[in-house]
Amino acid sequence: MRFLERQTSLPVLGMGISTEYGAAAAPGALDLRALRRAAPRLARFLEVGVEVSKGLDEHAVGWSAAGLPTTYHFLDVNLDEEADFAPGWLKAVDDLIGRLSPAWLCGDAGLWHFGPRDRAHMLLLPPVLTDDAADDLAAGIRRLRDATGLEVLPENPPGVAF
């Protein structure tokens, strides 16, 4: 089934907020649950930025445990590199999906590492703009979708040079 047909079964979540591990605990950070109580239309879902090496913080766990909608924003895979889809990483992703029950997966279609993979690297570069790179990216999107059973919605990472 093509994406335009599959997307009709995705839920409409409305406006959401985004977090990464530890962000809600930083001084002056937005109180996610308080915002939801005060202005529910502004916080209909939580996009949880995840590196499998860090997992979920207490705020993401609490949101999900309350049965509130989430999406899973991966922060640790180059979609165009088959080696990044290691069985251990996929198992950790599956475990996190089981805890979050996200509506879909999303994440940057850029490069989180350049050269050999170091999970702590966290470099974010724009995607390589060639036909071969686009084909590899599309294959990675399909690979992750097939492995998780969830739609994968990549986004363009910010960048000043391409």
Kindly, what is the distance between the CA atoms of the first and last residues, rounded to a whole number of angstroms? 32 Å
Pairing-aware structural class of the strands and helices? Answer: alpha/beta
Report the average pLDDT across residues.
90
Strand content: 5-15%
Low-confidence parts: none
Report the helical percentage: 25-40%
Task: Say how many strands there are.
Answer: 5
- The succession of helices and strands, N to C, reads HEHEHEHEHE
Largest sheet: 5 strands, parallel
Rg from Cα: 16 Å
Anisotropy-based shape? globular
Keywords:
single chain, 162 residues, 31% helix, globular
Write the layout of secondary structure elements.
Blueprint: H1 3-6, E1 16-20, H2 32-38, E2 45-50, H3 58-65, E3 70-74, H4 87-100, E4 105-108, H5 131-148, E5 152-155
In short:
The protein has helices at residues 3-6, 32-38, 58-65, 87-100, 131-148; strands spanning 16-20, 45-50, 70-74, 105-108, 152-155. With 162 residues, it is of the alpha/beta class.
Describe this structure in words.
With 162 residues, this protein is α/β, with parallel strands linked by helices. Helices cover 31% and strands 15% of the residues. The protein has helices spanning 3-6, 32-38, 58-65, 87-100, 131-148, and strands at residues 16-20, 45-50, 70-74, 105-108, 152-155. It has a five-stranded parallel sheet. Strand 1, helix 2 (32-38) and strand 2 form a beta-alpha-beta unit. The longest helix is centred in the C-terminal third of the chain and has 18 residues, at 131-148. The radius of gyration is 16 Å and the shape is globular. The two termini are 32 Å apart. The mean pLDDT is 90.
